[in-house]
């Protein structure tokens, strides 16, 4: 995958961290951005965001109306979706943009236009509330990780089924690579499972129909050239130990121990006692017991799956003594256990997820974990011929 390779070309460290292109022993997935160089959107109303003083970040070859990367991301999102300026996509997306959407991808600016119009047709009053933009420099451009809370009313038919007139809320997290005022690669993770449930549909039936109508169904067997597991044959998983005293390396060690080595007991070391994880389907998990229970239920469905990290992006907020960290990750393997996703199907599954963390010192106080559970069910039901409805196309 193009983005996977790009993320390992160079380590960019900005602010208190020096640029490092040659330290081969430091993981190439970690990037840093200077939070003071861009506007603040965390816990900030959009109306107040617009009144903030212009920052002096030099966005080379960007439209002059955008003072910094956060300003760019927040304003184009608002313009496209809430002001209905669909044509702004032509000015801010690359003609050959790649969109990674879980188990499938979309290509080209026309796909972006089409998807935006169809979503606005189904949910014409959609409001997108920016909760955070975690960013860094990336090559000659930037990467942003944008967390959004959406509120919308299903006034017309959607890909899920007929209009329900129900008002729903859901979270989307989007990683964007942007250069010269254009987004050229995007990883979009939306909690479609909660959308389906809030609209009143049976997610299993919707997923079965999605699997049946999938354009890539005919390639399913061809794609199984190997099986990802957290063990390498008989060799137990490796634990990543931090190679320097930085938040990025610390996060890699935490994820390696908890997610890939399954040391769920270490939740008590890396999280505060009252830490909160905002999980999919609008579930808030508070404290060690609930967080450990979530991890067990997820990995019970994929007990031998491999957890890997694509990218870690860190922004330190010195004024509030907190650090914001975005992690894009993948979980790949067989659905071979009884857990969060029901009885085992023994189907290969790949989950694309993006987590946002708020650290106080070296402990997590709040986390937003986003992945598409409906896409997981779609992969579980792949090749199944039964389908009670043909609403989803």
Key terms for this structure?
globular; Nuclear Transport Factor 2, Chain: A; alpha+beta; disordered N terminus; 32% strand; 26% helix
Commentary on this structure:
The protein is an alpha+beta fold and 393 residues long. It contains eleven helices and 13 strands. The strands form two sheets. Strands 1-10-11-12-13-8-9 form a seven-stranded mixed sheet. β12 and β13 form a beta hairpin. The longest helix has 15 residues, at 287-301. It starts with a helix and ends in a 13-residue tail after the last helix. The model is unreliable at 1-27 and 385-393 (pLDDT under 50).
Arrangement of strands in the largest sheet: 1-10-11-12-13-8-9
The Rg value, from CA coordinates, equals 21 Å
Which CATH class of the domain at 37-213 is shown? Alpha Beta
| Total strand segments | 13
- Oligomeric grouping of the chains: single chain
Report the span from N to C terminus.
27 Å
- Which strand-content bin applies to the residues? 25-35%
Assign the structural class, choosing from mainly alpha, mainly beta, alpha/beta, alpha+beta, or little secondary structure: alpha+beta
CATH architecture of the domain at 37-213, please? Roll
Order of helices and strands: HEHHHEEHEEEEHHHHEEHEEEEH
The low-confidence runs, each spanning 5 or more residues with pLDDT under 50, are 1-27, 385-393
CATH topology of the domain at 37-213: Nuclear Transport Factor 2, Chain: A
């Amino acid at each position: 995958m193009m983005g996977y390779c790009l993320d390992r070309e160079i380590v960019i460290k900005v602010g208190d961290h020096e640029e490092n292109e040659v330290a081969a022993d430091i993981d190439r997935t970690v990037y840093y951005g200077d939070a003071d160089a861009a506007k603040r959107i965390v816990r900030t109303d959009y109306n107040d965001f617009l009144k903030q003083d212009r920052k002096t970040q030099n966005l080379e070859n960007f439209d002059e109306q955008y003072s910094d990367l956060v300003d760019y991301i927040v304003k184009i999102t608002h313009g496209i979706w809430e002001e209905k300026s669909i044509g702004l996509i032509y000015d801010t997306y690359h003609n050959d943009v790649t969109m990674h959407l879980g188990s499938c991808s979309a290509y080209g600016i026309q796909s972006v236009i089409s998807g935006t119009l169809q979503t606005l047709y189904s949910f014409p009053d959609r409001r997108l509330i920016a909760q955070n933009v975690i960013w860094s420099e990336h090559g000659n451009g930037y990467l942003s990780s944008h967390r959004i809370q959406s509120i919308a009313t299903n006034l017309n038919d959607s890909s899920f089924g007929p209009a329900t007139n129900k008002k729903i809320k859901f979270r989307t997290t989007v990683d964007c690579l942007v250069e010269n005022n254009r987004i050229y690669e995007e990883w979009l993770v939306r909690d479609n499972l909660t959308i389906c449930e809030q609209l009143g549909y049976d997610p299993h039936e919707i997923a079965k129909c999605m699997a049946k109508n999938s354009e890539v169904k005919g390639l399913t067997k061809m794609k199984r050239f190997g099986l990802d597991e957290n063990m390498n044959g008989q060799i137990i998983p490796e634990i990543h130990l931090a190679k320097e005293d930085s938040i990025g390396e610390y996060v890699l060690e935490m994820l390696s121990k908890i997610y890939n080595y399954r040391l769920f007991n270490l939740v008590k070391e890396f999280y505060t006692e009252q830490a909160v994880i905002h999980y999919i389907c609008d579930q808030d998990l508070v404290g060690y017991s609930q967080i450990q229970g979530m991890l067990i239920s997820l990995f019970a469905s994929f007990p031998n799956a491999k957890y890997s990290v694509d990218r870690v992006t860190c922004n330190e907020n010195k004024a509030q003594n907190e650090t914001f960290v975005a992690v894009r990750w993948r979980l790949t393997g067989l659905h071979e256990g009884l857990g969060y996703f029901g009885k085992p199907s023994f189907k290969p599954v790949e989950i694309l997820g993006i987590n946002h963390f708020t650290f106080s010192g070296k402990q997590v106080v709040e986390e937003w974990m986003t992945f598409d559970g409906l896409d997981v069910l779609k992969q579980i039901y792949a090749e199944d011929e039964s389908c009670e409805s043909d609403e989803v196309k």
